[in-house]
Amino acid sequence: MKIGFRFLIGSLTVLAALLTATGLGAVTIYEIQYTTNAGPGTYPSPYANQAVTTQGIVTASGYGGGSGYFISMPEGGAWKGILVYDSAHSPEPGTLLTLTGQVYEYYGLTELRSIAYYQVESTGNALPPAEEVSTLEANAEAYEGVLFRVADAVCTQTLNGSGAWKVNDGSGELVIDDYLFDQSGLSGLIVLGASFSSVTGIGHYSYSTRSLNPRFEADVAADSIPEVITETPDTLSVIQRPLLNIPAIVVPGETFNIECVADPATTGWTAWLQKGNLTYGLPLANTDYETSPPRWVLTAQVPAVNVNELYDLHVAAAGLSDRTRHSVQVLPTRKTNYYFAHVTDVHMPTHAFSSDAGYDPADSSETVDFREVINDLNIIRPEFVLLTGDLVNEGELEDYTGARQYTKAKRLLGELEVPVYLVSGNHDIGGWDSTPPPAGTSRRNWWKNFGWSWLDNPSPAWPYHTQDYSFNYGNVHYVGLEAYNNSGGYDDYLPGIYGTDSFTAAQLQWLQADLASTQAETKVFFYHYDYQDQISLSALGLDLGLWGHTHYNSGSLTTQPYDLQTNNVCDGERSYRIIKVNGTQLQPLAAVSAGVDGGQITLAFEPGNTGAADSV
What we know:
Structural class: alpha+beta
């Protein structure tokens, strides 16, 4: 460092002598770059179109295939770097240069060009330290031409046709581009959801986009690479309930029903729970075949377990075998004081439509958003999650294009470590005029992936056409309805059955009968959206309604009955809402946004997290 410092002092003397001889004023890179005048939004240099002499250490070379290099003031930092557009020279990083040239604004990018004087003062100097900034801060003029790094960021978009990709540390997205280094060889690292301990490079501005440009492979430090989600279809085969999306919460000694589709002559039914190497048999008290709807109903007794967990359910019979992941939660007892979560509008794997220009079937940006919400919820550990629809963006593409949107969504739901109760939204079971699959494709995809198979019956005389269900937990009754707008740009599927309203007459009759039959004092209703205002919470005696669809938060946290919309998960919002339950009393909280890997959560354990208590 002393040698480098001596070179610097000497070079400043040379620079001063040069400036005296040429009559030019001495300027630093900071003086060239810094301005508070936004101009046309690109903050043009106050020295634009002037000849200046300045000095800096080369931080990167080989810009644009050899047409330039970047220099920086020795201390580095905001406003202290600049691009030198100069194909006549190829200085090595660490070279201290004195340059005379013209300050030029190239479509908003400040650069030094038309180099009239080029002097190497020393080589092998230490590079300035990379400034550490957030991905949001990096999208600023101050870091144009500057060596900087972002830390603990997640890949939110993979390499596109131009060699660019994106990361986000939770503050906002930042483009990573290839003006200095071809990153195509890193495609195995640049995977959606991959986390990077750091990405280092030079700030740049081009085509109205600010970017960070790594100089070599070591600038891209991958921390973890997620498992690639399989494209193999994951459809239901035998078990229709409990499911990943309609689980069962049970206590040892109780019984619960397992509903299966199989030939009426099937024999040899067995069932068991599994979590990792833990396996518990489920004694079957009854195995009955029912005709409306046609299905087997197996009555299983919950065994004592060593670990209270969310188990996979396995069912087998003569020639049959099936599993539903994360479908049976075994608890020592149901709580009366607890909390649950509301999530809505995920739009996996991408919020872009297949008919949009530039649509990328490999885009899984909304998978990244949902995974961050899941990471938060797995820390908070609510008793369960209510997910009110638009889980996927285009349900009709599952089989038509092989996009496997439902398959990917089911895989991600399996990352939740608490039960999730799901109802469908218009993107899940709707159709779009701009896409070619026939009417009803989305609904049929939903039935194949989330149940129930008997809903796939086009006869108006068949009584089962919508997936509506309810469950009790503690002193609260929860009821979820399928909501759908069968007109106005959607596919108008079987209007004689589904009509044009949010809820069919049969659904509303079922809802009234279900609410009348419960003994619970407190009632919660969850659904996607009431398009035609068919539901009156107060008239139905409901205490809380939870919904989504329009992608913002609304409703009073103090006025009962609570009628609350929660903001969306997609588009970087990563929203969710926690509702506290105290006996029969509900306390909904304001929606919050998930950070990167739970980065916005502070943990406090009561009692202490020492392993002495069965729950904390």
